[in-house]
Design brief:
Blueprint: E1 2-3, H1 9-18, H2 25-35, H3 49-58, E2 59-60, E3 65-72, E4 75-81, E5 87-95, E6 98-102, E7 106-107, E8 125-126, H4 129-143, E9 149-152, H5 162-173, E10 185-189, H6 193-199, E11 207-211, H7 217-223, H8 226-229, H9 232-246, E12 250-256, H10 264-274, E13 279-285, H11 299-311, E14 315-318, H12 332-335
Parallel strand pairs: 1-2, 6-9, 9-10, 10-11, 11-12, 12-13, 13-14
Antiparallel strand pairs: 3-4, 4-5, 5-6, 7-8
Helix pairs in contact: 1-2, 4-5, 6-9, 10-11
The structure holds S-adenosyl-L-homocysteine (SAH).
């Protein structure tokens, strides 16, 4: 049975039409679910009894459960239990421009990036759209504030769950629903080229981030398995096409791993690689995890790396470090969690 939070407005309209009900019921239901945040169908006062019974018969009203919360300056991390007892997580970050949430798109991940905690658990299954939507609804209910920005950068590879992720985006972007502007939504991929090809033909202004993490194939092959399928040239050729088609700037994420991809030579090579591409680079200080041997680059070298990119006219920022105390790197809370009590 489909979950009530799994439908776009258009899908709801089609549902009501095909059940000989009124199309405008879709807007009414959306309003209750996403504006009024009413979870009890019997309290939806302007919906008739027959429609209510039909909805109860056709939809599952299950909500994820928050089973653990961790908090540190400016960051809150949530562990959720799903209907089938699997666990996923979201991270909420407080910025001066608003509040962002980093949502998961799969249970586990098959991309096998060497430095990433999420991939230590192979993909169990894709998340349904509603399971991504509810991460936002439950967190907003908990913090009693509206979230302004959404990044699909939690556990999972969004382009390995393309249809559900795109439906999730449609649901949260809907003006009559949660209404998060597409420019406030970012999808991050490890570089699945066919996904990027498909994504450039979608409507909307959703941001694209690419986890690059290396300036050449020799290094990228070692730390990101996906590079064996889609190497840097094929990735960048597609990104250039994407930029040409959408006229949108792309973000390249670059985790700095000590003695792996953080030398001055790497910075120079990266500058040459990205020269002339409408992009900016987000340098990410690595969040060390107990289970994986990579080390975080020292601050001094992070700054050197930054300076070299800057000098070579690459737009670059260093990601503000959030949540190293709350296991905020992807997959860390779930991986390190043995006690599932809510704190
Ligand atoms: N699969 C997608 C989205 C999930 S990962 C992707 O690869 O983009 C989101 C980002 O977090 C990626 O850039 C990933 O490389 C990075 N990341 C993973 N583990 C990290 C860690 N321990 N410290 C910092 N960033 C990490």
């Amino acid at each position: 049975m489909r979950n009530i939070y799994d439908l776009t407005l258009k899908e709801f309209e089609d549902y009501f039409i095909s059940n000989n009900d009124k199309k405008f019921r879709a807007t009414q239901i959306y309003d209750y679910l996403y504006k009024k945040r009413e979870t009890d169908i019997d309290k939806m006062s302007n919906i008739g009894k027959t429609t209510k019974e039909m909805l109860k018969k056709d939809f599952d009203f299950f909500k994820l459960k928050i089973v653990k919360k961790q908090e540190d300056k400016g960051v809150k991390k949530y562990l959720f239990e799903l209907k089938d007892k699997n666990y996923i997580e979201s991270v909420v970050m407080y910025h001066d421009y608003g509040i962002s949430i980093c949502v998961s798109s799969q249970i586990g991940c098959n991309m096998g990036c060497a430095f990433c905690e999420s991939g230590r658990l192979k993909k169990v299954r894709n998340l349904e759209s509603y399971e991504i939507v509810e991460q936002i609804l439950l967190v907003e209910e908990d913090i009693k504030t509206r979230i302004s920005h959404v990044v699909i950068m939690g556990i999972g590879e969004p382009f390995d769950n393309y249809d559900n992720v795109l439906r999730f985006i449609k649901i949260i972007n809907e003006g009559k629903g949660i209404d998060i502007g597409s420019r406030h939504i970012t999808i991050s991929t490890c570089g699945i080229v066919p996904g990027i090809e498909k994504f450039m033909n979608e409507e909307g202004q959703v941001n694209l981030a690419i986890s690059l993490h290396a300036p050449n194939d020799v290094i990228r092959d070692k730390i990101m398995m996906i590079n064996k399928a889609y190497n840097i040239k094929s990735l960048l050729d597609t990104v250039k096409k994407y930029i040409q088609k959408t006229n949108r700037r792309v973000t390249f994420e670059y985790i700095l791993l000590e003695n792996v991809n953080d030398s001055n030579e790497c910075a120079l090579e990266l500058s040459k690689l990205l020269h002339g591409i409408n992009c900016y680079v987000n340098l990410i200080p690595y969040n060390e995890t107990e289970n994986i041997g990579f080390k975080r680059t020292k601050n001094e070298q992070i700054l050197k790396f930054y300076d070299i990119l800057k000098k070579n006219k690459i737009n670059v920022t260093i990601r503000k470090e959030f949540g190293s105390k709350v296991d905020a790197a992807c997959g860390q809370l779930r991986a390190n969690n043995s006690n599932k009590e809510v704190k």
